[in-house]
Protein backbone atom coordinates (compact mmCIF):
# COMPACT_ATOMS: atom_id res chain seq x y z
CA UNK A 1 0.00 0.00 0.00
CA UNK A 2 1.34 3.39 -0.97
CA UNK A 3 1.44 5.93 1.88
CA UNK A 4 0.71 9.55 0.85
CA UNK A 5 3.62 12.00 1.09
CA UNK A 6 1.78 14.14 3.67
CA UNK A 7 1.33 11.08 5.87
CA UNK A 8 5.00 10.24 5.48
CA UNK A 9 5.94 13.73 6.67
CA UNK A 10 3.58 13.45 9.62
CA UNK A 11 5.06 10.09 10.63
CA UNK A 12 8.54 11.54 10.27
CA UNK A 13 7.69 14.41 12.60
CA UNK A 14 6.21 12.01 15.13
CA UNK A 15 9.26 9.77 14.93
CA UNK A 16 11.57 12.77 15.31
CA UNK A 17 9.69 13.94 18.40
CA UNK A 18 9.83 10.44 19.87
CA UNK A 19 13.57 10.18 19.21
CA UNK A 20 14.25 13.62 20.65
CA UNK A 21 12.11 12.85 23.69
CA UNK A 22 13.84 9.51 24.13
CA UNK A 23 17.28 11.09 23.88
CA UNK A 24 16.24 13.81 26.31
CA UNK A 25 14.91 11.23 28.75
CA UNK A 26 18.12 9.22 28.64
CA UNK A 27 20.20 12.32 29.16
CA UNK A 28 17.98 13.53 31.98
CA UNK A 29 19.22 10.95 34.48
CA UNK A 30 22.99 10.85 34.43
CA UNK A 31 23.50 8.90 37.68
CA UNK A 32 21.38 6.58 39.80
CA UNK A 33 22.96 5.49 43.09
CA UNK A 34 22.87 2.83 44.33
CA UNK A 35 22.69 1.57 40.72
CA UNK A 36 20.53 -1.36 41.92
CA UNK A 37 19.59 -2.93 45.24
CA UNK A 38 18.57 -6.22 46.82
CA UNK A 39 15.25 -7.57 47.97
CA UNK A 40 14.81 -8.88 51.49
CA UNK A 41 17.18 -6.59 53.37
CA UNK A 42 16.79 -6.24 57.12
CA UNK A 43 16.27 -2.50 56.72
CA UNK A 44 13.63 -2.18 53.98
CA UNK A 45 14.15 1.57 53.50
CA UNK A 46 16.18 2.44 50.42
CA UNK A 47 17.29 5.98 49.56
CA UNK A 48 17.92 6.33 45.82
CA UNK A 49 19.78 9.34 44.52
CA UNK A 50 18.82 10.45 41.01
CA UNK A 51 21.07 12.99 39.33
CA UNK A 52 20.26 14.92 36.17
CA UNK A 53 19.76 18.47 34.94
CA UNK A 54 16.84 20.13 36.75
CA UNK A 55 15.52 16.76 37.88
CA UNK A 56 14.03 18.28 41.03
CA UNK A 57 11.28 19.94 38.96
CA UNK A 58 9.67 16.53 38.53
CA UNK A 59 7.69 14.43 41.00
CA UNK A 60 8.57 10.73 41.11
CA UNK A 61 6.25 7.73 41.35
CA UNK A 62 7.18 4.06 41.31
CA UNK A 63 5.57 0.85 40.03
CA UNK A 64 4.77 -2.50 41.68
CA UNK A 65 2.82 -0.92 44.55
CA UNK A 66 6.07 0.20 46.12
CA UNK A 67 5.55 2.97 48.66
CA UNK A 68 7.56 6.17 48.44
CA UNK A 69 8.22 7.15 52.04
CA UNK A 70 10.13 10.36 51.48
CA UNK A 71 11.33 12.73 48.79
CA UNK A 72 14.23 15.06 49.56
CA UNK A 73 15.25 17.98 47.38
CA UNK A 74 18.16 20.30 48.08
CA UNK A 75 19.16 23.75 46.86
CA UNK A 76 20.73 22.00 43.85
CA UNK A 77 17.91 21.22 41.36
CA UNK A 78 20.02 18.51 39.71
CA UNK A 79 19.46 16.04 42.58
CA UNK A 80 16.50 14.27 44.08
CA UNK A 81 16.65 11.68 46.86
CA UNK A 82 13.76 9.22 46.86
CA UNK A 83 13.25 6.83 49.79
CA UNK A 84 11.14 3.75 49.10
CA UNK A 85 9.91 0.89 51.26
CA UNK A 86 11.07 -2.47 49.87
CA UNK A 87 9.44 -4.58 52.59
CA UNK A 88 7.80 -7.68 51.11
CA UNK A 89 8.79 -6.57 47.60
CA UNK A 90 10.32 -9.55 45.77
CA UNK A 91 13.27 -9.36 43.42
CA UNK A 92 11.83 -7.48 40.46
CA UNK A 93 12.21 -4.66 37.96
CA UNK A 94 10.75 -1.39 39.21
CA UNK A 95 9.92 1.59 37.05
CA UNK A 96 10.22 5.14 38.34
CA UNK A 97 8.13 7.73 36.51
CA UNK A 98 9.04 11.41 36.74
CA UNK A 99 6.04 13.65 36.22
CA UNK A 100 5.61 17.33 35.56
CA UNK A 101 2.03 18.68 35.82
CA UNK A 102 0.67 15.13 35.79
CA UNK A 103 2.48 14.30 32.57
CA UNK A 104 5.19 11.63 32.57
CA UNK A 105 8.36 13.31 31.36
CA UNK A 106 10.44 10.14 31.43
CA UNK A 107 10.89 6.82 33.19
CA UNK A 108 13.79 4.98 34.79
CA UNK A 109 14.08 1.25 35.39
CA UNK A 110 15.46 0.08 38.72
CA UNK A 111 16.37 -3.48 39.70
CA UNK A 112 15.80 -5.20 43.03
CA UNK A 113 17.99 -8.29 42.80
CA UNK A 114 17.85 -11.58 44.65
CA UNK A 115 20.34 -11.98 47.51
CA UNK A 116 22.71 -14.89 47.90
CA UNK A 117 21.45 -17.64 50.17
CA UNK A 118 22.21 -16.91 53.85
CA UNK A 119 23.78 -13.61 52.82
CA UNK A 120 22.90 -11.92 56.10
CA UNK A 121 24.62 -14.63 58.16
CA UNK A 122 27.94 -14.55 56.29
CA UNK A 123 30.97 -15.43 58.41
CA UNK A 124 33.60 -12.75 58.70
CA UNK A 125 37.29 -12.71 59.61
CA UNK A 126 38.31 -13.36 63.20
CA UNK A 127 41.26 -14.46 65.35
CA UNK A 128 41.49 -17.78 63.52
CA UNK A 129 42.60 -15.88 60.40
CA UNK A 130 45.83 -14.35 59.18
CA UNK A 131 45.31 -11.21 57.10
CA UNK A 132 47.58 -10.38 54.16
CA UNK A 133 47.73 -6.69 53.25
CA UNK A 134 48.28 -5.89 49.59
CA UNK A 135 48.84 -2.59 47.82
CA UNK A 136 47.37 -3.75 44.49
CA UNK A 137 49.29 -1.34 42.23
CA UNK A 138 52.57 -2.73 43.62
CA UNK A 139 51.77 -6.44 43.89
CA UNK A 140 51.43 -8.01 40.43
CA UNK A 141 50.54 -6.83 36.95
CA UNK A 142 48.27 -9.59 35.67
CA UNK A 143 46.81 -7.58 32.80
CA UNK A 144 49.22 -5.05 31.23
CA UNK A 145 46.45 -3.87 28.88
CA UNK A 146 44.74 -1.94 31.67
CA UNK A 147 47.85 -0.16 33.01
CA UNK A 148 46.57 3.17 31.71
CA UNK A 149 43.12 4.40 30.75
CA UNK A 150 42.21 7.24 28.35
CA UNK A 151 39.48 8.49 30.71
CA UNK A 152 41.81 8.73 33.72
CA UNK A 153 44.59 11.26 34.06
CA UNK A 154 47.55 9.38 35.52
CA UNK A 155 49.26 6.83 33.26
CA UNK A 156 51.48 3.92 34.25
CA UNK A 157 55.17 4.64 34.75
CA UNK A 158 57.19 2.27 36.95
CA UNK A 159 60.13 4.66 37.04
CA UNK A 160 58.15 7.08 39.27
CA UNK A 161 58.12 5.87 42.91
CA UNK A 162 54.78 7.57 43.54
CA UNK A 163 53.29 6.78 40.16
CA UNK A 164 51.08 4.07 38.73
CA UNK A 165 53.02 0.84 38.29
CA UNK A 166 50.31 -1.41 36.84
CA UNK A 167 49.48 -3.94 39.53
CA UNK A 168 45.85 -5.02 39.33
CA UNK A 169 43.10 -7.42 40.39
CA UNK A 170 44.15 -9.99 37.82
CA UNK A 171 47.61 -10.03 39.37
CA UNK A 172 46.12 -10.85 42.76
CA UNK A 173 43.94 -13.60 41.30
CA UNK A 174 46.92 -15.18 39.57
CA UNK A 175 48.82 -15.33 42.87
CA UNK A 176 46.10 -16.49 45.26
CA UNK A 177 47.74 -19.88 45.61
CA UNK A 178 50.98 -18.18 46.64
CA UNK A 179 49.17 -16.16 49.30
CA UNK A 180 47.32 -19.22 50.55
CA UNK A 181 50.55 -21.24 50.75
CA UNK A 182 51.92 -18.56 53.04
CA UNK A 183 49.25 -19.39 55.60
CA UNK A 184 47.12 -16.32 54.90
CA UNK A 185 43.36 -16.87 55.02
CA UNK A 186 42.23 -13.28 54.44
CA UNK A 187 43.25 -10.51 52.05
CA UNK A 188 42.93 -6.81 52.75
CA UNK A 189 43.59 -4.75 49.65
CA UNK A 190 44.09 -1.02 49.93
CA UNK A 191 41.19 0.68 48.08
CA UNK A 192 40.36 -0.38 44.56
CA UNK A 193 37.70 2.20 43.69
CA UNK A 194 38.43 4.81 41.07
CA UNK A 195 40.90 7.57 41.95
CA UNK A 196 41.43 10.18 39.24
CA UNK A 197 44.06 12.35 40.92
CA UNK A 198 46.78 13.67 38.63
CA UNK A 199 49.50 12.19 40.84
CA UNK A 200 49.81 9.48 43.48
CA UNK A 201 46.47 7.97 42.46
CA UNK A 202 47.85 4.47 43.04
CA UNK A 203 46.98 4.52 46.75
CA UNK A 204 43.31 5.12 45.78
CA UNK A 205 42.24 6.75 49.05
CA UNK A 206 41.10 9.89 47.16
CA UNK A 207 38.24 8.21 45.35
CA UNK A 208 36.45 9.77 42.40
CA UNK A 209 33.68 7.16 42.10
CA UNK A 210 32.73 4.91 45.01
CA UNK A 211 30.57 2.59 42.93
CA UNK A 212 33.27 1.79 40.38
CA UNK A 213 36.52 -0.16 40.49
CA UNK A 214 39.38 1.86 39.03
CA UNK A 215 39.73 0.65 35.44
CA UNK A 216 43.52 0.45 35.88
CA UNK A 217 42.84 -2.32 38.41
CA UNK A 218 40.09 -3.95 36.35
CA UNK A 219 36.31 -3.89 36.40
CA UNK A 220 33.59 -4.38 38.97
CA UNK A 221 33.16 -7.85 37.51
CA UNK A 222 36.87 -8.56 38.06
CA UNK A 223 36.45 -7.67 41.73
CA UNK A 224 33.56 -10.11 42.03
CA UNK A 225 35.70 -12.73 40.30
CA UNK A 226 38.47 -12.14 42.86
CA UNK A 227 35.94 -12.72 45.64
CA UNK A 228 34.70 -15.91 43.99
CA UNK A 229 38.20 -17.27 43.46
CA UNK A 230 39.09 -16.57 47.07
CA UNK A 231 35.99 -18.29 48.38
CA UNK A 232 36.86 -21.38 46.33
CA UNK A 233 40.04 -21.50 48.43
CA UNK A 234 38.19 -20.83 51.72
CA UNK A 235 39.76 -17.37 51.86
CA UNK A 236 38.10 -14.11 52.91
CA UNK A 237 38.05 -10.75 51.17
CA UNK A 238 38.21 -7.50 53.17
CA UNK A 239 37.51 -4.16 51.51
CA UNK A 240 39.35 -1.01 52.58
CA UNK A 241 36.45 1.41 53.04
CA UNK A 242 36.75 5.21 53.39
CA UNK A 243 34.04 7.14 55.22
CA UNK A 244 35.93 10.33 56.08
CA UNK A 245 36.71 11.77 52.68
CA UNK A 246 36.59 11.46 48.90
CA UNK A 247 38.97 12.77 46.26
CA UNK A 248 38.79 16.32 44.93
CA UNK A 249 38.10 14.75 41.50
CA UNK A 250 34.99 12.88 42.67
CA UNK A 251 32.27 13.55 40.13
CA UNK A 252 30.04 15.21 42.76
CA UNK A 253 32.65 17.85 43.54
CA UNK A 254 31.80 19.57 40.26
CA UNK A 255 28.15 19.81 41.28
CA UNK A 256 27.58 19.16 44.99
CA UNK A 257 24.13 17.91 45.99
CA UNK A 258 24.17 20.49 48.75
CA UNK A 259 26.81 22.77 50.22
CA UNK A 260 26.66 20.75 53.46
CA UNK A 261 27.60 17.52 51.64
CA UNK A 262 31.19 18.26 52.64
CA UNK A 263 32.59 20.14 55.62
CA UNK A 264 33.52 23.66 54.59
CA UNK A 265 35.08 26.59 56.40
CA UNK A 266 35.45 30.23 55.38
CA UNK A 267 39.05 29.40 54.52
CA UNK A 268 40.65 26.03 53.85
CA UNK A 269 41.05 24.26 57.18
CA UNK A 270 43.02 21.08 57.69
CA UNK A 271 42.50 18.74 60.60
CA UNK A 272 45.15 19.05 63.30
CA UNK A 273 45.17 15.23 63.71
CA UNK A 274 44.96 15.59 67.51
CA UNK A 275 42.12 13.11 67.89
CA UNK A 276 42.57 13.02 71.65
CA UNK A 277 40.26 16.04 71.68
CA UNK A 278 37.29 13.81 70.80
CA UNK A 279 37.37 12.17 74.23
CA UNK A 280 39.00 15.05 76.10
CA UNK A 281 36.54 16.39 78.70
CA UNK A 282 38.47 19.69 78.75
CA UNK A 283 38.66 20.19 74.96
CA UNK A 284 37.42 23.36 73.32
CA UNK A 285 34.58 23.26 70.79
CA UNK A 286 36.88 24.82 68.22
CA UNK A 287 39.51 22.10 68.58
CA UNK A 288 36.88 19.37 68.25
CA UNK A 289 35.36 21.02 65.18
CA UNK A 290 38.70 21.34 63.41
CA UNK A 291 39.60 17.75 64.31
CA UNK A 292 36.41 16.22 62.93
CA UNK A 293 35.46 18.64 60.15
CA UNK A 294 38.91 19.71 58.95
CA UNK A 295 40.18 18.17 55.73
CA UNK A 296 42.82 15.45 55.79
CA UNK A 297 44.72 17.10 52.93
CA UNK A 298 43.64 19.62 50.25
CA UNK A 299 43.01 16.87 47.70
CA UNK A 300 40.57 15.00 49.98
CA UNK A 301 37.29 16.84 50.69
CA UNK A 302 35.96 15.99 54.14
CA UNK A 303 32.55 14.34 54.03
CA UNK A 304 29.89 15.70 56.38
CA UNK A 305 28.40 12.61 57.95
CA UNK A 306 26.21 14.78 60.17
CA UNK A 307 24.14 15.39 57.03
CA UNK A 308 21.60 12.51 56.99
CA UNK A 309 21.74 12.30 53.18
CA UNK A 310 25.51 11.76 53.26
CA UNK A 311 25.31 9.26 56.13
CA UNK A 312 22.65 7.23 54.32
CA UNK A 313 24.58 7.41 51.04
CA UNK A 314 27.73 5.97 52.66
CA UNK A 315 25.82 3.32 54.61
CA UNK A 316 24.08 2.05 51.50
CA UNK A 317 27.28 2.17 49.47
CA UNK A 318 29.00 -0.03 52.04
CA UNK A 319 26.11 -2.52 52.13
CA UNK A 320 25.89 -2.53 48.33
CA UNK A 321 29.52 -3.62 48.05
CA UNK A 322 29.04 -6.37 50.64
CA UNK A 323 26.12 -7.81 48.69
CA UNK A 324 27.50 -7.21 45.23
CA UNK A 325 31.05 -8.49 45.79
CA UNK A 326 30.18 -11.01 48.53
CA UNK A 327 32.61 -9.37 50.96
CA UNK A 328 33.80 -10.84 54.25
CA UNK A 329 34.78 -7.70 56.13
CA UNK A 330 35.83 -4.05 56.13
CA UNK A 331 38.94 -2.22 57.20
CA UNK A 332 37.89 1.42 57.60
CA UNK A 333 40.41 4.14 56.89
CA UNK A 334 40.86 7.16 59.24
CA UNK A 335 37.92 5.89 61.29
CA UNK A 336 37.89 8.46 64.08
CA UNK A 337 38.37 11.49 61.85
CA UNK A 338 34.60 11.56 61.21
CA UNK A 339 31.71 12.54 63.45
CA UNK A 340 31.63 9.89 66.23
CA UNK A 341 27.83 9.65 66.45
CA UNK A 342 27.48 9.29 62.68
CA UNK A 343 30.19 6.62 62.57
CA UNK A 344 28.48 4.68 65.37
CA UNK A 345 25.27 4.72 63.35
CA UNK A 346 27.13 3.68 60.21
CA UNK A 347 28.75 0.69 61.94
CA UNK A 348 25.47 -0.34 63.57
CA UNK A 349 23.60 -0.15 60.27
CA UNK A 350 26.14 -2.43 58.60
CA UNK A 351 26.24 -4.95 61.44
CA UNK A 352 22.44 -4.91 61.82
CA UNK A 353 22.30 -6.20 58.24
CA UNK A 354 25.16 -8.66 58.83
CA UNK A 355 25.38 -9.68 62.52
CA UNK A 356 28.63 -11.64 62.07
CA UNK A 357 30.34 -9.02 59.90
CA UNK A 358 33.67 -7.78 61.25
CA UNK A 359 34.86 -4.21 60.78
CA UNK A 360 38.31 -3.08 61.90
CA UNK A 361 38.88 0.64 62.23
CA UNK A 362 42.12 2.53 61.77
CA UNK A 363 42.40 4.28 65.13
CA UNK A 364 45.96 5.54 64.88
CA UNK A 365 46.51 6.49 68.50
CA UNK A 366 49.26 5.67 70.92
CA UNK A 367 47.74 4.57 74.20
CA UNK A 368 45.36 1.78 75.06
CA UNK A 369 42.69 3.98 76.62
CA UNK A 370 42.29 5.97 73.41
CA UNK A 371 42.21 2.76 71.37
CA UNK A 372 39.85 0.86 73.63
CA UNK A 373 37.38 3.76 73.66
CA UNK A 374 36.61 3.01 70.01
CA UNK A 375 35.90 -0.71 70.30
CA UNK A 376 32.28 -1.79 70.53
CA UNK A 377 30.85 -1.98 74.07
CA UNK A 378 33.82 -0.18 75.58
CA UNK A 379 33.38 0.63 79.26
CA UNK A 380 35.62 3.64 78.68
CA UNK A 381 33.31 4.92 75.97
CA UNK A 382 30.32 4.22 78.20
CA UNK A 383 31.63 6.80 80.69
CA UNK A 384 30.77 9.39 78.03
CA UNK A 385 27.59 7.54 76.98
CA UNK A 386 29.23 6.48 73.74
CA UNK A 387 29.28 3.14 71.95
CA UNK A 388 31.12 3.10 68.64
CA UNK A 389 29.54 -0.21 67.48
CA UNK A 390 32.94 -0.85 65.84
CA UNK A 391 33.85 -4.52 66.41
CA UNK A 392 37.63 -4.26 66.01
CA UNK A 393 40.49 -1.76 66.23
CA UNK A 394 44.09 -1.82 65.03
CA UNK A 395 46.66 -2.36 67.78
CA UNK A 396 48.90 0.64 67.20
CA UNK A 397 50.40 0.48 70.68
CA UNK A 398 51.75 -3.02 70.08
CA UNK A 399 52.96 -1.89 66.67
CA UNK A 400 54.96 0.85 68.39
CA UNK A 401 56.72 -1.67 70.64
CA UNK A 402 57.41 -4.15 67.83
CA UNK A 403 59.31 -1.47 65.94
CA UNK A 404 62.00 -1.11 68.60
CA UNK A 405 62.02 -3.82 71.28
CA UNK A 406 63.99 -6.43 69.36
CA UNK A 407 66.81 -3.94 68.81
CA UNK A 408 67.22 -3.55 72.57
CA UNK A 409 69.71 -6.26 73.53
CA UNK A 410 70.25 -4.99 77.05
CA UNK A 411 67.04 -4.78 79.03
CA UNK A 412 66.37 -1.80 81.29
CA UNK A 413 63.36 -0.94 83.43
CA UNK A 414 61.33 0.06 80.40
CA UNK A 415 63.25 -1.30 77.41
CA UNK A 416 63.42 -4.71 75.79
CA UNK A 417 60.79 -7.40 76.34
CA UNK A 418 59.15 -5.49 79.19
CA UNK A 419 57.56 -3.33 76.47
CA UNK A 420 55.39 -6.25 75.40
CA UNK A 421 54.52 -7.22 78.94
CA UNK A 422 53.42 -3.66 79.71
CA UNK A 423 51.39 -3.51 76.51
CA UNK A 424 49.41 -6.67 77.29
CA UNK A 425 49.08 -5.70 80.95
CA UNK A 426 46.62 -3.04 79.79
CA UNK A 427 44.41 -5.44 77.84
CA UNK A 428 41.76 -5.11 80.54
CA UNK A 429 40.77 -1.85 78.88
CA UNK A 430 39.51 -3.61 75.75
CA UNK A 431 36.03 -5.16 75.56
CA UNK A 432 37.31 -7.95 73.28
CA UNK A 433 41.05 -8.58 73.06
CA UNK A 434 40.61 -11.44 70.60
CA UNK A 435 39.18 -9.03 68.03
CA UNK A 436 42.12 -6.65 67.69
CA UNK A 437 44.24 -6.41 64.55
CA UNK A 438 47.89 -7.11 65.38
CA UNK A 439 50.54 -5.87 62.96
CA UNK A 440 54.20 -4.98 62.73
CA UNK A 441 53.81 -2.65 59.76
CA UNK A 442 51.45 -1.55 57.02
CA UNK A 443 51.43 0.65 53.92
CA UNK A 444 51.81 3.83 56.02
CA UNK A 445 54.58 2.79 58.43
CA UNK A 446 58.26 2.00 58.31
CA UNK A 447 59.06 -1.45 56.95
CA UNK A 448 59.98 -3.93 59.67
CA UNK A 449 62.87 -5.44 57.71
CA UNK A 450 64.34 -2.00 57.16
CA UNK A 451 63.96 -1.13 60.86
CA UNK A 452 65.81 -4.33 61.79
CA UNK A 453 68.48 -3.96 59.08
CA UNK A 454 67.37 -7.15 57.33
CA UNK A 455 68.34 -9.29 60.31
CA UNK A 456 66.26 -12.42 59.77
CA UNK A 457 66.66 -13.49 63.40
CA UNK A 458 64.81 -10.36 64.48
CA UNK A 459 62.22 -10.84 61.73
CA UNK A 460 61.53 -14.31 63.15
CA UNK A 461 61.03 -12.83 66.61
CA UNK A 462 58.51 -10.34 65.21
CA UNK A 463 56.53 -12.97 63.32
CA UNK A 464 56.55 -15.39 66.27
CA UNK A 465 55.07 -12.71 68.49
CA UNK A 466 52.39 -11.77 65.96
CA UNK A 467 51.41 -15.39 65.38
CA UNK A 468 50.99 -16.29 69.04
CA UNK A 469 49.55 -13.30 70.92
CA UNK A 470 45.85 -12.47 71.17
CA UNK A 471 44.16 -10.89 68.19
CA UNK A 472 44.20 -11.17 64.40
CA UNK A 473 47.69 -11.07 62.82
CA UNK A 474 48.19 -8.95 59.70
CA UNK A 475 51.21 -9.32 57.41
CA UNK A 476 52.25 -6.66 54.88
CA UNK A 477 52.97 -7.99 51.40
CA UNK A 478 56.60 -8.82 50.68
CA UNK A 479 57.88 -8.94 54.24
CA UNK A 480 57.68 -12.73 54.00
CA UNK A 481 60.46 -12.69 51.38
CA UNK A 482 62.58 -10.10 53.18
CA UNK A 483 61.28 -7.00 51.38
CA UNK A 484 61.98 -3.73 53.07
CA UNK A 485 61.96 -0.10 52.07
CA UNK A 486 63.02 3.18 53.57
CA UNK A 487 60.15 5.44 54.67
CA UNK A 488 62.47 8.45 54.68
CA UNK A 489 62.36 8.14 50.88
CA UNK A 490 58.62 8.82 50.92
CA UNK A 491 55.61 6.54 50.73
CA UNK A 492 56.88 5.05 47.48
CA UNK A 493 59.86 3.73 49.43
CA UNK A 494 57.68 1.42 51.53
CA UNK A 495 55.39 0.44 48.66
CA UNK A 496 57.82 -1.27 46.34
CA UNK A 497 56.91 -3.67 43.55
CA UNK A 498 56.79 -7.33 44.51
CA UNK A 499 59.59 -9.10 42.59
CA UNK A 500 58.11 -11.35 39.92
CA UNK A 501 54.87 -9.41 39.58
CA UNK A 502 55.87 -7.84 36.25
CA UNK A 503 56.85 -9.44 32.99
CA UNK A 504 60.60 -9.23 32.63
CA UNK A 505 61.38 -9.22 36.37
CA UNK A 506 64.61 -11.13 36.80
CA UNK A 507 63.66 -12.33 40.29
CA UNK A 508 60.31 -14.09 40.71
CA UNK A 509 59.67 -14.56 44.42
CA UNK A 510 56.19 -15.95 43.78
CA UNK A 511 57.70 -19.34 43.01
CA UNK A 512 60.01 -21.56 45.05
CA UNK A 513 62.32 -21.94 42.06
CA UNK A 514 62.49 -18.19 41.53
CA UNK A 515 63.37 -17.17 45.09
CA UNK A 516 66.87 -16.37 46.19
CA UNK A 517 68.25 -18.37 49.11
CA UNK A 518 67.58 -15.46 51.47
CA UNK A 519 64.02 -14.98 50.20
CA UNK A 520 63.39 -18.70 50.64
CA UNK A 521 64.61 -18.56 54.23
CA UNK A 522 62.16 -15.76 55.04
CA UNK A 523 59.29 -17.40 53.17
CA UNK A 524 59.78 -20.91 54.53
CA UNK A 525 59.82 -19.69 58.12
CA UNK A 526 56.74 -17.50 57.66
CA UNK A 527 54.80 -20.16 55.82
CA UNK A 528 55.54 -22.85 58.38
CA UNK A 529 54.62 -20.59 61.29
CA UNK A 530 51.31 -19.32 59.93
CA UNK A 531 50.21 -22.62 58.44
CA UNK A 532 50.71 -24.11 61.90
CA UNK A 533 48.67 -21.29 63.35
CA UNK A 534 45.70 -22.11 61.10
CA UNK A 535 44.75 -25.17 63.13
CA UNK A 536 45.69 -24.20 66.67
CA UNK A 537 42.70 -22.95 68.65
CA UNK A 538 44.84 -22.08 71.66
CA UNK A 539 46.39 -19.15 69.80
CA UNK A 540 43.08 -18.22 68.18
CA UNK A 541 40.78 -17.83 71.15
CA UNK A 542 42.67 -19.29 74.10
CA UNK A 543 43.43 -17.44 77.30
CA UNK A 544 46.82 -15.85 77.87
CA UNK A 545 49.05 -15.90 80.93
CA UNK A 546 52.38 -14.09 80.79
CA UNK A 547 55.28 -13.68 83.21
CA UNK A 548 57.31 -10.56 83.98
CA UNK A 549 60.37 -10.63 81.71
CA UNK A 550 63.70 -11.45 83.31
CA UNK A 551 67.09 -10.84 81.70
CA UNK A 552 65.34 -9.74 78.50
CA UNK A 553 63.53 -13.07 78.17
CA UNK A 554 59.74 -13.29 78.01
CA UNK A 555 57.46 -16.28 78.53
CA UNK A 556 53.73 -16.55 77.97
CA UNK A 557 51.16 -19.28 77.53
CA UNK A 558 48.10 -19.51 75.28
CA UNK A 559 45.71 -22.24 76.34
CA UNK A 560 42.28 -23.82 76.22
CA UNK A 561 41.00 -26.79 78.20
CA UNK A 562 42.31 -29.06 75.46
CA UNK A 563 45.61 -27.48 74.38
CA UNK A 564 48.48 -25.44 75.82
CA UNK A 565 51.11 -23.50 73.89
CA UNK A 566 54.20 -22.10 75.61
CA UNK A 567 56.10 -19.25 73.88
CA UNK A 568 59.61 -18.34 75.01
CA UNK A 569 61.66 -15.36 73.74
CA UNK A 570 65.33 -14.68 74.23
CA UNK A 571 65.96 -11.09 73.16
CA UNK A 572 69.60 -11.16 74.26
CA UNK A 573 72.61 -11.17 72.00
CA UNK A 574 73.85 -14.22 73.88
CA UNK A 575 72.48 -17.60 74.91
CA UNK A 576 70.10 -17.73 77.89
CA UNK A 577 69.03 -20.56 80.16
CA UNK A 578 65.60 -20.28 81.78
CA UNK A 579 64.51 -22.37 84.76
CA UNK A 580 61.02 -23.77 84.23
CA UNK A 581 59.86 -24.12 87.84
CA UNK A 582 58.72 -20.49 87.75
CA UNK A 583 56.03 -21.43 85.20
CA UNK A 584 54.59 -24.44 87.06
CA UNK A 585 51.22 -22.68 87.20
CA UNK A 586 50.84 -23.21 83.45
CA UNK A 587 53.17 -26.13 82.77
CA UNK A 588 51.24 -28.21 85.35
CA UNK A 589 51.93 -31.89 84.70
CA UNK A 590 53.34 -31.50 81.22
CA UNK A 591 56.82 -33.01 80.96
CA UNK A 592 57.91 -31.75 77.57
CA UNK A 593 57.06 -29.47 74.69
CA UNK A 594 57.65 -29.80 70.98
CA UNK A 595 58.81 -26.74 69.05
CA UNK A 596 56.40 -26.29 66.14
CA UNK A 597 59.10 -24.71 64.00
CA UNK A 598 62.05 -27.06 64.42
CA UNK A 599 60.38 -30.22 65.68
CA UNK A 600 62.82 -30.29 68.58
CA UNK A 601 61.50 -31.54 71.95
CA UNK A 602 62.34 -29.57 75.09
CA UNK A 603 62.37 -31.02 78.60
CA UNK A 604 60.17 -28.87 80.85
CA UNK A 605 61.16 -30.45 84.17
CA UNK A 606 64.19 -28.24 84.87
CA UNK A 607 65.42 -25.61 82.42
CA UNK A 608 65.36 -24.47 78.79
CA UNK A 609 68.32 -23.04 76.88
CA UNK A 610 67.70 -20.65 74.01
CA UNK A 611 70.10 -19.40 71.36
CA UNK A 612 70.71 -15.62 71.03
CA UNK A 613 67.84 -13.63 69.49
CA UNK A 614 65.53 -16.60 69.19
CA UNK A 615 62.13 -17.86 70.20
CA UNK A 616 60.48 -21.24 70.53
CA UNK A 617 56.79 -22.14 70.29
CA UNK A 618 56.10 -25.30 72.26
CA UNK A 619 53.00 -27.45 72.10
CA UNK A 620 53.01 -29.03 75.54
CA UNK A 621 52.85 -32.79 75.77
Automatic annotation (TrEMBL):
One of its GO terms (molecular function) is hydrolase activity, acting on glycosyl bonds. It holds the Pfam family Alpha-amylase. Residues 142-165 are annotated as: Disordered. SUPFAM superfamilies: (Trans)glycosidases (SSF51445), E set domains (SSF81296), Glycosyl hydrolase domain (SSF51011). InterPro entries: Cyc-maltodext_N (IPR015171), GH (IPR017853), GH13_cat_dom (IPR006047), Glyco_hydro_b (IPR013780), Ig-like_fold (IPR013783), Ig_E-set (IPR014756). CDD domains: AmyAc_bac_CMD_like_3. Residues 133-533 form the Glycosyl hydrolase family 13 catalytic domain. Residues 1-27 form the signal peptide. GO terms for biological process: carbohydrate metabolic process. Keywords: Glycosidase, Hydrolase, Signal. This is Glycoside hydrolase family 13 protein. It comes from Flavobacterium frigoritolerans. The lineage of its organism: Bacteria, Pseudomonadati, Bacteroidota, Flavobacteriia, Flavobacteriales.
Amino acid sequence: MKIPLQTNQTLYRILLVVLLFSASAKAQIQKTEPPFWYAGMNNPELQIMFYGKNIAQYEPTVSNNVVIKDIKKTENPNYIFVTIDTKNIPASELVFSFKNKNKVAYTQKYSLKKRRENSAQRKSFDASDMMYLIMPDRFANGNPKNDSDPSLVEKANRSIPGGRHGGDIEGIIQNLDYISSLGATTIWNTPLNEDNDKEHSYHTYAQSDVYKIDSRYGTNEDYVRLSNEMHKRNMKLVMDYVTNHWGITHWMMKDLPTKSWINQFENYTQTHHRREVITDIHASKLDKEVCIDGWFVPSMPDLNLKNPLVAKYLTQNAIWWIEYADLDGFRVDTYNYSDPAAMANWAKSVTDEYPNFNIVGEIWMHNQANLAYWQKDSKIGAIQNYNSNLPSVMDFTLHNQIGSAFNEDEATWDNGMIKFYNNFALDYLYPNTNNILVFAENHDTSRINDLYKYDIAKYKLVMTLMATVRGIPQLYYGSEIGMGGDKSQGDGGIRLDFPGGWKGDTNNAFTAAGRTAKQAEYFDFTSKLFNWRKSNEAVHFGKMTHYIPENNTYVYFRYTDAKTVMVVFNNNAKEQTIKTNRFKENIKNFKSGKDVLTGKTFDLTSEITLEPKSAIVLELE
